[in-house]
Amino acid sequence: MLKICGLTQAPQAIEIAKLGVDAIGFICVPLSPRYIDPFKIQEITEKLAGFPNLLRVGVFANLELETIQKTVDIGQINTIQLHGQESPEFVTTLRTKFPNYTLIKALGVKDQASLDQAKIYAPLVDILLLDAYHPEQLGGTGRAWDWNLLKHFRPGCPWWLAGGLNPDNVVEAIRLTNPDGIDLSSGVELSPGVKNLTKVQALIQTLQPFRP
Ligand SMILES: O=C(O)c1ccccc1N[C@@H]1O[C@H](COP(=O)(O)O)[C@@H](O)[C@H]1O
């Protein structure tokens, strides 16, 4: 699975969907330079009707249930990614509220203890997303991290790799960790929220041997 995250422009979203990605992500975190409001998301998702299998991911961090509900409804999102310090209890509540949505829990990995914590979420979600840990930033750091930590990571549910991936290091990352999916944002970007379509194309070319 390939997800390109941090989109803010409809023409780019259409081009990226045409290139055959599995998921596109919208950052619904107000402090992010990639923030996009629910009505702008709607403007984009309504142009993506020709891609019924595309995961349209809303990325949230430490937001209230009501905000998530509103954004999902207005933005016509079909996948919820929780990228903050959401508790297992909150994730369970969300699962109950959104039984037919794909649910992703992201965690910043610092050490083995982070991975042990990630495993607690495995039975509660559809996908775990393992990202770089940063003391001040929640995500979109562009920082690669010590993927060796993941060599034997088998959480019991599908998991995706994120954090500082780009067309030049993605093959090494996949060979080392063997994830079920990968998620890129700043590694294929011109500026926050504006993707570099040449880099997305290069990425897809590079990933050809690894994709169905
Ligand atoms: O991209 C952001 O600004 C962001 C803000 C808050 C939470 C998550 C965010 N992005 C997520 O970060 C990873 C990958 O980032 P990168 O490739 O290292 O730039 C991805 O999962 C995004 O969804």
UniProtKB/TrEMBL annotation:
GO terms for biological process: L-tryptophan biosynthetic process. It holds the Pfam family PRAI. Keywords: Amino-acid biosynthesis, Aromatic amino acid biosynthesis, Isomerase, Tryptophan biosynthesis. Pathway: Amino-acid biosynthesis; L-tryptophan biosynthesis; L-tryptophan from chorismate: step 3/5. It is an enzyme of class 5 (isomerase). Its EC number is 5.3.1.24. GO terms for molecular function: phosphoribosylanthranilate isomerase activity. Residues 2-205 form the N-(5'phosphoribosyl) anthranilate isomerase (PRAI) domain. HAMAP family: PRAI. Belongs to the TrpF family. This is N-(5'-phosphoribosyl)anthranilate isomerase. It comes from Pseudocalidococcus azoricus BACA0444. The gene is trpF.
